[in-house]
Amino acid sequence: MADAGGEVAAAPASGPANGLSNGAGATPAQPNNPLSRKLHKILETRLDNDKEMLEALKALSTFFVENSLRTRRNLRGDIERRSLAINEEFVSIFKEVKEELESINEDVQAMSSCCQDMTSRLQAAKEQTQDLIVKTTKLQAESQRLEIRAQVADAFLSKFQLTSDEMGLLRGTRGGPVTEDFFKALGRVKQIHNDVKVLLRTNQQTAGLEIMEQMALLQETAYERLYRWAQSECRALTQESCDVSAVLTQAMEALQDRPVLYKYTLDEFGTARRSTVVRGFIDALTRGGPGGTPRPIEMHSHDPLRYVGDMLAWLHQATASEKEHLEALLKHVTAQGVEENIQEVVGHITEGVCRPLKVRIEQVILAEPGAVLLYKISNLLKFYHHTISAIVGNSAATLLTTIEEMHLLSKKIFFNSLSLHASKLMDKVELPPPDLGPSSALNQTLTLLREVLASHDSSVVPLDARQADFVQVLSCVLDPLLQMCTVSASNLGTADMATFMVNSLYMMKTTLALFEFTDRRLEMLQFQIEAHLDTLINEQASYVLTRVGLSYIYNTVQQHKPEQGSLASLPNLDSVALKAAMQIVKQSTELVCRAYEEVHAAVMNPVNEYKDPESILHRSPEQVKTLLS
């Protein structure tokens, strides 16, 4: 660097002397000139790409501040001195580092000696404590095994044994309450009893059998306590408003696993509710509701239909309520036959009211309040029999049997009453009235029949039962009526008998036409009316022909034979006789036409309030005149 600097500094002085600037035609310098080579090298150097040169020049600029001949000549010395100072400083600093490293080396050597000493001592200690380490390792392994066995034992006890609190809940105290925790403990016993079967498939059969036996004993103890508690709770359900608690419902759900205890508990419930229902029924009969509202049922004993209806309505409500109580009690029971159990217990509960109910209804029926009332009572009994059986099925046999017996009794007395009435009609047959209209006995009997059929139409018993009763009632009443009318008209003439029978049959028909299930009877009555009308028409025609003198002529014409000669030659058939007869017919026809005209005017007059008069008289007076002329 000093050489380069010296050469650069001398270049300006020697340039002109060597002729470096002689122009384009000058002869180039000799290539062997060292200075010239250096100059060319320097001039050809591109400082932009030489980073080291740039860094050197930048460092040079820090202390080369004055560009003079003297400083240029001393540049090399300055650089060397500066380099020497830097190297001396570097040596001084690294001397300190060397001293520090030597100190560290001494420390490391000391530590190495210490570690070697400790290693030697540890090796000696290890050789001395080898047996202790082996024993300690064995003890640690044994401790781990014992800890695992303790965990297994705890898990086994937790899975297959009950806690002391759970044992206390299941065994309990006599008369102590049963809570929700009891059922949780009971469920845990069942779970253990089922889970322990796993042990029976292993080599731990003895433990499994012991646990199973223990759980079985606990279950029996718990079920016995639960049964006693449920029995006590059921005995306390003697109020009309039976409030079945949720715990009692859970108890019945649990007891279904012990059918005998379950059945005994249901029997206890049924017995308690039976006495409650009987007491409530007697109170309703004699004392009425709270504060006298509603009034006692016995207060209405003078009204047979209401009396019987109130008793049956009370029993219907009580039966439905008892079924609801049982459904609430057994709502969580999943065993088969729950519905049958409910029906059986309801039958047992309602059995107690059968005797007082039967005695009172029998008194009403045997008092014979009348055919209509008896029939209404019979229908009422049939309706409640159907309604109650729809609620509890046919299991409430005693109550339903009692109601059915009373229904049959009322029905029997009713038909006996109708038969007695019919026999009285035949015992004293009335003569037809002078106007040949229906007799008073017929009107009274039809009024009775109308009341019976009206109550029958308003009945709420099933349709098939109503139809069967209807047929029997009609047979019991109509047949004697027809017989009575026939006997009553037997002493009349043919025309009068036909007239009386038509009037009587028409009255029966109009009565039956108001009710259902009478189509067959109406057809029969219509046939009989038409038959008697035919008889009446024939009799009236014969009478008219006789009165106008055409009877002899008509009969002679019908019986005349050609061999007898001409009709005009026969006596009373000459032209004079025929003209006289036709004159009588003409006058009679005119009278009939005048009578028809007056009747037609009266029927058509709105004042007389005939509905649809055209359907009554189909022909006008002119048409009648034309037909008869």
From TrEMBL:
PANTHER family: COMPONENT OF OLIGOMERIC GOLGI COMPLEX 6, CONSERVED OLIGOMERIC GOLGI COMPLEX SUBUNIT 6
Known partners and oligomeric status: Component of the conserved oligomeric Golgi complex which is composed of eight different subunits and is required for normal Golgi morphology and localization.
Annotated membrane topology: Peripheral membrane protein
Domain of life: Eukaryota
Region: Disordered, residue numbers: 1-36
Subcellular location(s) of the protein: Golgi apparatus membrane
Chief location bin: Golgi
Any one Pfam family match given in the protein's UniProt record, by short name: COG6_C
Biased composition (Low complexity): 1-19
CC annotations in GO: Golgi membrane; Golgi transport complex
Role description: Required for normal Golgi function.
Conserved oligomeric complex COG6 N-terminal domain segment(s): 60-172
Domain Conserved Oligomeric Golgi complex subunit 6 C-terminal: 205-585
Listed InterPro entries: COG6, COG6_C, COG6_N
Alphabetized UniProt keyword annotations: Golgi apparatus, Membrane, Protein transport, Transport
GO biological process: intra-Golgi vesicle-mediated transport; protein transport
Signal peptide: none
UniProt protein name: Conserved oligomeric Golgi complex subunit 6
Similarity comment: Belongs to the COG6 family.
Recorded coiled-coil stretches: none
